[in-house]
Design brief:
heterodimer, A: alpha+beta, 7 helices, 28% helix, B: alpha+beta, four-stranded antiparallel sheet, 6 strands, 33% helix, 24% strand, extended, Ribosomal_mL46_NUDIX (chain A), mitochondrion (chain A), ribonucleoprotein (chain A), NUDIX_hydrolase-like_dom_sf (chain A)
């Protein structure tokens, strides 16, 4: 294997309001990679396994998941406790002062000269401020959290905003078409991570921007060819999985292969059992 | 030298004899003051079974003598090797202080659990942002709100490459709302940015250099 120095990782992940693309906004500073130094005299041990690299591209959740009933009750109780233990804020103190001043004004013995200089507070009451804020809040329309039609569409990247989704592609393996994580064969002179990046580009036609989470694979799947097809030089394939996070989901062109975005619970319907076991271990169900 | 000592001893023994009636009531007879005997070799109290019973400082490890004036030095920066990243800064920032602090504590605890060495864990100064809105009638802007951005940094001394994707994945999956996460390399400039500028000192240095 060609030796290369280690690229540095510089990434920035934002979890703020939902952007137009329905994904977390990312800022990626490209890592400074050194060019690979090719050793002139390299003893390559040819192994009978063909190497492939697959990319486990995940779209992270965009909104928070709904709380279970116990969580809701606990949340309410904690909020109530904190409210009862807390001190009054500046705004609430102002409200109380204004109310008190109002009541004194209405009283018989009111001398405006004795009033301390509260200039603008007398003009703009705290209650008025609160009313304007209420008005503005009412006129704000948030986007709907769950859209049933989008949830059912498996090819849309905006489905199930509260869960994390994995990309599956239908690829030709041997004689049949299977649903797999997008994979590509390893070629001489490149690292496995570059192979995984190439796999992503080829499958999605360069529509997705992904951040790879490191140079080390997170899982491996070994496939031995059936005895009839085995030869001296090819016993089977080893597929290494690399984790990546979706940065920008603006599909420029239509993908050339069929793509699916599935939740971890739905993976079972599409993947072969042996493959599914290995992939399952890589994906965190949080 | 010797006759000086003997003179001291003479005067001292005289005092001891004068005071001995009062001393005897309070002190046990075995203990004799040090300067009564001729040489250090036969201190009688060392024969006491409980001699040196309260000593503990000799059990502590040897510490170098602490210098009073110690300028804050940066911890040694680890450089990246083939199998591990160097010193990394995991910066957590957001508007809600409790959420930001709890998330940074979660990251620190996770590192302890996973065996990742945490070099430092500190906070950067809070930045206040004033949100100003234009008035509906007129050109004046008025202050609508003041937003405070809190930042916490967890500095990792080294991170294994095989552990890195899993670690970052766990951090991202547990990231709370309204919190920004950033993983960067630690540089000398980052360390120097934490210190306050001292304009008088810089002025004096400039004057000296001129």
């Amino acid at each position: 294997m060609v030796s290369r120095s280690f690229p540095q990782l510089l990434t920035c992940f934002n979890r703020t309001a939902v952007g137009s693309a329905g994904c977390r906004r990312f800022s990626i500073t490209p890592p400074g990679r050194a060019t690979p130094q090719s050793n002139t005299a390299v003893e390559r041990v040819t192994s009978p396994w063909t190497l492939m690299a697959a990319v486990c591209l995940q779209r992270l959740p965009v909104i928070t998941a709904d709380c279970s009933p116990i969580e809701q009750r606990f949340k309410q109780m904690m909020q109530q406790m904190e409210l009862e233990k807390s001190l009054l804020s500046d705004h609430e103190l102002r409200l109380m002062e204004d109310a008190e001043r109002m009541s004194r004004k209405q009283g018989n013995e009111y001398d405006s000269d004795e009033e301390e200089g509260h200039g603008d507070q007398a003009i703009m009451l705290a209650q008025d401020l609160e009313d304007t804020w209420e008005q503005r809040f009412k006129s704000f329309q948030p986007a709907p959290r769950v859209r049933a039609d989008l949830d059912k569409d498996l090819t849309s990247v905006q489905r199930c905003l509260a869960d994390s989704l994995v990309l599956l592609a239908e690829q030709q393996v041997g004689a049949e078409k299977l649903w797999l994580l997008p994979q590509a064969a390893w070629q001489e002179g490149e690292t496995l991570r570059q192979t995984a990046e190439r796999a992503l580009c080829s499958v999605t036609a360069a529509g997705f921007k992904a951040t790879f989470l490191g140079n080390a694979p997170c899982g491996v799947y070994k496939y031995k060819l059936p005895k009839a097809a085995r030869t001296e030089s090819s016993v089977g394939t080893k597929v290494f999985f690399f984790k990546a996070i979706l940065a920008d989901s603006a599909p420029g062109t239509a993908p050339n292969t069929a793509l699916l975005w599935v939740k971890k619970s739905e993976l079972q319907k599409y993947l072969k059992p042996a493959y599914m076991m290995k992939v399952d271990r890589c994906i965190l169900s949080l | 030298m010797n006759h000086v000592f003997r003179k001291l001893q003479v005067t001292v023994t005289q005092q001891a004899s004068i005071l001995s009636p009062s001393l005897c009531r309070t002190t046990p007879s075995i203990q004799h003051p040090v300067w009564c005997t001729a040489s250090v070799g036969d201190r009688e109290y060392k024969g006491m079974p409980t001699h040196g019973i309260g000593r503990w400082k000799y059990l502590l490890p040897r510490q170098a003598p602490k210098k009073k004036k110690d300028k804050t030095q940066m911890k040694q920066m680890v450089s990246a090797t083939d199998t591990a990243y160097g010193t990394l800064n995991v910066k957590v920032s957001g508007y809600d202080m409790t959420v930001v602090e709890h998330y940074s504590q979660y990251i620190h605890n996770l590192c302890n659990r996973l065996g990742i060495q945490v070099a430092e864990s500190y906070a950067l100064p809070t930045k206040s942002t004033e949100v100003m809105l234009m008035q509906e009638q007129g050109n004046k802007m008025y202050v609508e709100a003041v937003l405070k951005t809190h930042q916490r940094v967890v500095q990792l001394s080294s991170l294994n490459t095989s552990l890195c994707p899993i670690f970052v994945d766990v951090l991202l999956k547990n990231q709370p709302e309204g919190v920004q996460l950033s993983v960067k390399e630690h540089t000398e400039a980052d360390f120097q940015a934490r210190f306050k500028a001292r304009p008088e000192l810089e002025g004096l240095i400039a004057q000296i250099n001129q």
